[in-house]
């Protein structure tokens, strides 16, 4: 049995289905991210694991023991919320020591033990020496680090993170996310994080669980989820993408309006297939280049975004709807793209990914 | 983990001791609210719907309708309440507008003076207006040939007494203005009047409706004022008193009380729904509006504030003056005779001490009980499904129940020989309980607002850290909510000190409270000692309010480190 196992978990709020027969297994030491748009059930799933929300049906096992019906205080986890939930009237040290004082073993260790543990935790989150400050005197990022120290101080077997970075500004968010990941690897604590930010999920997770309307859409590593989305929703939700469609004309070829493209994966001839093309997989060629899967397109719109450019292309030989391409600035190497220009672009066969048919 | 199998599923396995305890406490609170609120009101309802033989009948209503003069009492009650509402709400709105939306010097002073009527029993106004406009009044000529004893006296006294209630609501309603709307109006070069009509009034409309309903209910259920200054002008509230205390006709008293309950309950339900709408109309993005000085607006409003304040202080001042004058209006020499006579010889010192005891106990019992119940409702999820709606409903109900009605319900319920709690009747305890129940809703809402404003995950965090929720209540929730707790304590103390309505049915000669003794002294024609007692109550309440202000000020200073504005 996996370290944390969820079976058939179901939860309704009135007529709204928050969780619909969710099954999930989490390995020991894993960093799992629950990803999805708001209302997809990811927070409900986390709160059910924490015991803060009681499921209507289904079981949760933690370390081989069933914990489905236990109250939060009888489960073994630390939790960090988006709002930090630091006790405002207690100092940082008192906050971090909050869970230490109640444990008999810790009480045996005495004041000195508690003090040392607090210092150790603050060291761990990179905030030594702020014991006597109050939460309101700290920045958002510092407060969230203290909340993390408090959650980890009791050495819980499971760490639950509920959108821990959403309240922070962009720079702090990026900094703290690598710190959290580093800390998690260092301590080896099994961690489940909820987020709606796909970039955050890709950057931090060992495995990502994509959810929608209370159902799990896909479970996999960041690469798998990004490269091989299991369905339209996942493809759409993770990163940008183009969907093109056409009938297969042979084992490896597909007909797109006035164009025949080769696909690296086998197709069933005669049937219509849908393909998924990431914007960054569109290649830019010299105007007279005749290489495989290349075609002419004219530039409808060009957005310069610093590190890369987003280009909306019209390729009438390929499809009716526009094709979005993303060219990184060093790939363009100073070459300028202007609206109205005609370019030679292409989709390499290995990046023409057939999509599973919608169920 | 200890595994105990209980037959009650919501107290079952997988719960900690403190979770079981909190469910148990909430059930206990529900029981108490049933016994001391719902059952007495139920008995009142039954009392009016059943005849002497215990059969269901409307005979008491028929009897009531055919009693001569009752129709007039109903009509009088309603039109007086309407007139009071029409006068009080605009007066209070303008005053609140001056405080919140103009740049006046001494804003705090105007505010305190505007609320000063809360410090005394409602009777203070009535006594003072008798001295100003009565048969031997200083300003009798202002009324021409009209007598102050009757509708005029009732109306001005009730306007005075209900003014602060409307003011509190409107000050809050006008406090939350969105500056962006004013800027938009200004950018569109809207005139001053257009801005007032299109921005100010709509944003305060819920407050205005709420204030109107509160003033109307106040006037309908007010009993002391018409008793003292009403002369022979019949109104329902006095009718209840006459039926129950004068004629011992509990059945008819119940019918009249039910009639009183009806308009107040309707007003309360309407207000409740409006309040819920209002919360949604305020967005988190609103930018607070800060008025800029503008003498064309500020000078007239300042003059208005001064005028109202002089009038308010004139009322309190006259009561104090009356208490010091030897023999109105013939010997205006100042002395403490009335205090001496009133307190020592008429045995009213005991009444004052009783009131202090009642108010103190109401505060000490009510504050922790109300806060704990609000806490359990807000922060606890366990327990059977019917429990929370029941307690929530019971906590909201007292706002819609006039004290007079509650008092009669208590008589009917606790004075019943078959009631095991019969022993409570006529004790200090029942008066304390009546006060807590009577003023429950406001305090409950104060506690709830404070509890809702703190992070809702504190309990989840402490559970994950294996700390009992009651430890967190003591170490975190209570300290953070301390200002609200002090506010509840002050509110309970002052109201317990000044209330007449419920207690007038519940006291015994040994437990006579000061506010009721004013009524009795007035009835005996002892206006001087009555004024002395009223002044004593006002001073007590003022001292308590001052202590409260100092305490909160000191508290904020000491806790500035963590209370300072964040984010």
Describe the model.
The complex is a heterodimer of chains A (359) and B (567). Chain A is an alpha+beta fold and 359 residues long. Chain A has helices at 42-50, 92-96, 104-124, 140-153, 170-187, 198-204, 222-227, 232-237, 329-332; strands spanning 4-13, 16-26, 31-35, 57-62, 65-66, 78-81, 158-162, 190-195, 207-212, 215-220, 242-247, 253-256, 259-262, 272-277, 283-285, 294-304, 308-314, 323-328, 342-346, 353-354. Helix content of chain A is 25%, strand content 32%. In chain A, the strands form 5 sheets. A 6-stranded mixed beta sheet of chain A has the order 6-7-8-3-9-10, with helices on both faces. In chain A, strands 15-19-16-17-18 form a 5-stranded antiparallel beta sheet. In chain A, a hairpin with a 2-residue loop joins β1 (4-13) and β2. In chain A, α3 runs antiparallel to α4 (140-153). Chain B has 567 residues and is an all-alpha fold. Chain B has helices spanning 17-49, 59-66, 70-101, 107-114, 123-133, 151-175, 179-187, 192-221, 224-229, 236-246, 250-281, 295-324, 337-345, 349-379, 387-396, 403-414, 428-438, 440-453, 458-464, 469-498, 514-523, 527-558, 560-563, and strands at residues 325-327, 331-334. In chain B, α2 packs across α11, α3 packs antiparallel against α8 and α5 crosses α22 (527-558). In chain B, 46% of the residues are buried. The interface between A and B is large, with 36 and 35 residues.
């Amino acid at each position: 049995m996996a370290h944390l196992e969820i079976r058939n978990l179901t939860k309704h709020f009135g007529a709204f289905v928050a969780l619909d027969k969710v099954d999930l297994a989490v390995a020991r030491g894993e960093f799992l991210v629950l990803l999805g748009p708001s209302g997809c059930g990811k927070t409900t799933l986390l709160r059910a694991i924490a015991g803060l929300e009681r499921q209507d049906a289904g079981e949760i096992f933690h370390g081989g023991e069933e914990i489905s019906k236990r109250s939060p205080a009888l489960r073994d986890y630390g939790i960090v919320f988006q709002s930090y939930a630091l006790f405002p009237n207690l100092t940082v040290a008192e906050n971090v020591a909050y869970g230490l004082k109640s444990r008999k073993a810790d009480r045996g260790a005495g004041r000195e033990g508690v003090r040392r543990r607090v210092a150790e935790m603050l060291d761990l989150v990179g905030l030594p020496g702020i014991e006597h400050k109050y939460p309101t005197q700290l920045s958002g990022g510092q407060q969230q680090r203290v909340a993390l120290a408090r959650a980890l101080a009791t050495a819980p077997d499971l760490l639950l993170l509920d959108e821990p970075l959403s309240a922070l500004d962009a720079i702090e968010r990026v900094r703290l996310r690598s710190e959290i990941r580093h800390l998690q690897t260092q301590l080896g604590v099994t961690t489940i994080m909820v987020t709606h930010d796909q970039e955050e999920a890709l950057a931090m997770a060992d495995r990502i669980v994509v959810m929608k309307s209370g159902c799990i859409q896909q479970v996999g590593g960041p690469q798998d989820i990004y490269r091989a989305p299991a369905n339209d929703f996942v493809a759409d939700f993770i990163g940008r993408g183009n969907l093109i469609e056409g009938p297969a004309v042979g084992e490896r070829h597909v007909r797109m309006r006035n164009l025949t493209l080769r696909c690296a994966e086998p197709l069933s001839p005669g049937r219509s297939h849908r393909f998924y093309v990431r914007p960054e997989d569109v290649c830019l060629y010299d105007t007279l280049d005749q290489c495989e899967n290349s075609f002419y397109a004219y530039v409808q719109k060009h957005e310069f975004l610093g590190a890369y450019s987003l280009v909306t292309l019209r390729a009438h030989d390929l499809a009716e709807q526009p094709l979005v391409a993303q060219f990184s600035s060093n790939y363009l190497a100073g070459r300028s793209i202007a609206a109205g220009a005609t370019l030679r672009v292409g989709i390499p066969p290995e990046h023409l990914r057939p999509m599973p048919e919608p169920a | 983990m200890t595994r105990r199998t209980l037959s009650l599923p919501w107290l079952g396995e997988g719960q900690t001791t403190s979770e079981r305890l909190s469910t148990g406490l909430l059930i206990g609170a529900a029981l108490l609210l049933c016994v001391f609120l719902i059952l007495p009101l139920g008995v009142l309802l039954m009392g009016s719907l059943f005849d002497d033989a215990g059969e269901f009948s409307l005979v008491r209503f028929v009897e009531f309708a055919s009693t001569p003069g009752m129709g007039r009492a109903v009509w009088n009650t309603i039109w007086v309440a309407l007139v009071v509402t029409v006068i009080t709400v605009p007066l209070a709105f303008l005053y609140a507008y001056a405080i919140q939306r103009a740049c006046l010097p001494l804003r705090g002073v105007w505010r305190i003076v505007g609320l000063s009527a809360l410090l005394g029993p409602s009777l203070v106004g009535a006594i003072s207006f008798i001295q100003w406009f009565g048969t031997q009044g200083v300003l009798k000529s202002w009324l021409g040939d009209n007598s102050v004893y009757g509708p005029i006296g009732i109306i001005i006294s009730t306007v005075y007494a209900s003014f602060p209630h409307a003011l509190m609501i409107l000050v809050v309603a006008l406090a939350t203005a969105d500056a962006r709307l004013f800027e938009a109006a200004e950018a569109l070069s809207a005139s001053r009047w257009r801005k007032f009509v299109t921005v100010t009034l709509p944003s305060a409309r819920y407050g205005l409706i709420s204030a109107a309903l509160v003033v109307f209910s106040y006037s309908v259920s007010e009993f002391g004022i018409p008793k003292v200054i009403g002369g022979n002008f019949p109104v329902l509230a006095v009718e209840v008193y006459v039926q129950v205390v004068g004629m011992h006709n509990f059945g008819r008293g119940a019918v009249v009380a039910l009639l009183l309950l009806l308009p107040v309950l309707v007003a309360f339900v309407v207000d409740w729904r409006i309040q819920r709408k209002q919360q949604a109309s305020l967005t988190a993005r609103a930018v607070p509006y800060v008025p800029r000085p503008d003498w064309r607006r500020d000078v007239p409003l300042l003059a208005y504030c001064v005028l109202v304040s002089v009038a308010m202080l004139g009322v309190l001042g006259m009561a104090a003056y009356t208490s010091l004058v030897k023999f109105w209006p013939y010997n205006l020499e100042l002395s403490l005779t009335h205090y001496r006579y009133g307190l020592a010889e008429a045995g009213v010192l005991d009444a004052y001490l009783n009131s202090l005891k009642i108010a103190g106990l109401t505060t000490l019992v009510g504050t922790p009980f109300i806060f704990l119940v609000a806490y359990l409702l807000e922060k606890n999820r366990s327990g059977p499904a019917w429990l929370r709606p029941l307690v929530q409903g019971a906590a909201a109900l007292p706002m819609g129940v006039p004290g007079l009605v509650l008092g009669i319900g208590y008589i009917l319920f606790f004075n019943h020989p078959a009631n095991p709690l019969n022993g409570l009747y006529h004790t200090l305890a029942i008066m304390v309980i009546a006060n807590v129940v009577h003023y429950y809703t406001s305090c409950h809402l104060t506690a709830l607002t404070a509890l809702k404003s703190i992070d809702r995950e504190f309990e989840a965090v402490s559970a994950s850290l294996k700390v009992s929720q009651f430890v967190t209540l003591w170490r975190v929730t209570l300290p953070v909510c301390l200002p609200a707790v002090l506010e509840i304590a002050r509110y309970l103390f002052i109201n317990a000190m000044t209330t007449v309505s419920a207690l007038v049915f519940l006291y015994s000669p040994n437990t006579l409270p000061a506010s009721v003794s004013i009524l009795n002294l007035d009835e005996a024609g002892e206006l001087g000692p009555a004024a002395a007692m009223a002044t004593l109550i006002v001073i007590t309440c003022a001292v308590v309010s001052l202590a409260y202000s100092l305490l909160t000020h000191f508290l904020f200073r000491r806790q500035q480190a963590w209370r300072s504005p964040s984010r």
